[in-house]
């Protein structure tokens, strides 16, 4: 493994806050945990340049302007902009504006942070803009918990970091919608797929049925339901096959045909891909 290195200019104001944490063994094994968290007003020539730090970092810009150089890209950060990065990779960020760069920030780690990070990166960028202050509020809550610790602090902070990770993914992927925002045709399509899961259904068929371009239909269904129509259909079939495997004596062949899959070996491969078990194994362990 390459060695950690860092260069920095720590030119933040006296009213800036920085809290460093040494997590317990239990925290490292069980929880999401803070490594450092703070609030900065950082004037020029504030900067940090480093690599190979085992930590994830999120910064949320409140005012002023900063710059991030990361993964061969350069990002300008203004009010409402934030970034989420893996500090094992090279990073260089610094104050850009004449006024101080005002920001919340948190270094953290924990189980499955890497999975959230990959979900966050689905659209390929490490930064995004938000008008919501929810992420700012969560950081302030974590900072308060970290400043006034007690026997429950590790548990409470873990919950807050999990909330932060969820909020990052939800806001970045524009999932901040209410149920009434879901287009009517998407709701009807979902019901149609629930009722016709046995049938062979293509995007071309759905395009004609709902008179919506198939690429737009696929994109909007993914946005509001969470997966493309084809994946939704497959998951629906697997869920129904689980019910038949567990609560009936139907054969594997009969179950495959019942859910609309005529190729039984394909059904068995698909079931194992989705569940990690064969249909027979699921029935034995169900």
Strand order of the largest sheet: 2-3-10-5-8-11
Tell me the span between the first and last alpha carbons.
Answer: 43 Å
Flag low-confidence runs: none
Beta content comes to: 15-25%
Relative helix content: 40-55%
What is the global morphology? elongated
Structural class category: alpha+beta
Radius of gyration: 24 Å
How many strands, what sense, and barrel or not for the largest sheet? Answer: 6 strands, antiparallel
What's the total count of β strands? 11
Count of DSSP H/I helices: 11
The string of secondary-structure elements, in order, is EEHEEEEEEEEHEHHHHHHHHH
**Averaging pLDDT over every residue, what do you get?**
94
3D structure, described in words:
With 286 residues, the protein is α+β, with helices and mostly antiparallel strands. The chain has eleven helices and eleven strands.
SSE topology:
Elements (H helix, E strand, L loop, with lengths): L4 E5 L7 E4 L4 H6 L2 E10 L4 E5 L4 E8 L2 E5 L2 E5 L3 E6 L4 E5 L5 E9 L3 H8 L6 E3 L4 H14 L5 H20 L11 H12 L7 H8 L3 H12 L3 H19 L4 H7 L5 H12 L3 H7 L1
Antiparallel strand pairs: 1-4, 2-3, 3-10, 4-9, 5-8, 5-10, 6-7, 6-9, 8-11
Helix pairs in contact: 2-4, 3-4, 6-7
Give keywords.
6-stranded antiparallel β-sheet, alpha+beta, 11 helices, single chain, 44% helix, 286 residues, 5-stranded antiparallel β-sheet
Brief characterization of the structure:
The chain has 286 residues and is of the alpha+beta class. The chain has eleven helices and eleven strands.
